[in-house]
Write a structure and sequence with these properties.
The protein is of the alpha+beta class and 247 residues long. It has a single domain, classed as Phosphatase 2c, domain 1. The protein contains 7 helices and 10 strands. It has a 5-stranded antiparallel β-sheet with strand order 1-10-9-6-7. A 5-stranded antiparallel β-sheet has the order 2-3-4-5-8. The protein is globular and about 55 Å long.
Length: 247
């Protein structure tokens, strides 16, 4: 199997709508652990939920000591669900967030998804969305209830069907992801996905620039589009190791 060299970067901007940034991210390169959470709304519960969910998820994945499995990832999200529900009871209001992660381990690469933050992959020039948005807008557009650019879809975009902190403790999607040299991944909150067009994301990830430049370009594009939401992006580039590279 070809050994891969990872380069990555992440960044986040508050934008113009909210008084603070309610997105939370974590990026560790070796072993790869990339997580994006997006708090729901701008309440105290929103701020606490994102941080608690990310911290709890990381604690459980790290405790697996490289032996990551679907069971480990689902248990990590279940623990985050319980912690965020406890926060909601304590603050007496809504506490909820999305959680999207890409994890590298001895068992391969894994995506965990709950909510509407996203993971994209650029491979050989093709940008693909690897995750599903857990929203009524996604269901409505897929099943033809209304056009994607309709007012109904815009309103349904804020109706999440699954998130961390949901009363029903819904489970995340867990996907095993095969990787190849020169794959580029983008994890992002909806502040990127809703404001930066597919073609622009594809163009930025196709550039022969470093992940930190790509992140800057994505955040700048979200700001130029109006900065209507907190925006967070993590870019990961997997390259074949050259002779002399450290393993």
């Amino acid at each position: 199997m070809t050994r891969l060299k990872i380069s990555s970067a992440g960044g986040s901007e508050t934008g113009n709508r909210y008084r603070a940034n309610f997105d939370v991210m974590r990026l560790d390169q070796e072993p790869l652990l990339a997580v994006v959470a997006d708090g729901m709304g701008d309440s105290e519960g929103s701020a606490l939920a994102g941080r608690a969910a990310v911290d709890t998820f990381i604690e459980h994945v790290t405790a697996a000591d490289g032996n990551v499995s679907p069971e480990v990832l689902r248990a990590a999200v279940a623990a985050a669900q319980q912690r965020v529900r406890d926060i909601g009871r304590r603050v007496g209001g809504l506490a909820g967030c999305t959680l999207t992660a890409l994890v590298g381990s001895a068992t391969g690469y894994w995506i965990t998804q709950i909510g509407d933050s996203r993971v994209y992959r650029l491979r050989e020039g093709l940008l693909e969305l690897l995750t599903t948005d857990h929203t009524m807008a996604w269901l409505g557009v897929i099943h033809g209830w209304y056009p994607m650019d309709s007012p109904q879809a815009a309103a349904a975009r804020y109706h999440l069907t699954r998130y961390v902190g949901h009363d029903a403790h819904p489970e995340p999607d867990v996907l095993s992801v095969a990787v190849r040299p020169d794959d580029r991944f983008l994890l992002c909150s909806d502040g990127i996905a809703d404001q930066v067009a597919y073609q622009q994301i594809q163009e930025i990830l196709n550039e022969r620039s470093s992940p930190d430049v790509m992140v800057w370009r994505l955040l700048s594009a979200a700001d130029a589009a109006g900065g209507k939401d907190n925006a967070t992006a993590i870019v990961i580039h997997l390259a074949a190791q050259e002779p002399g590279d450290r393993p």
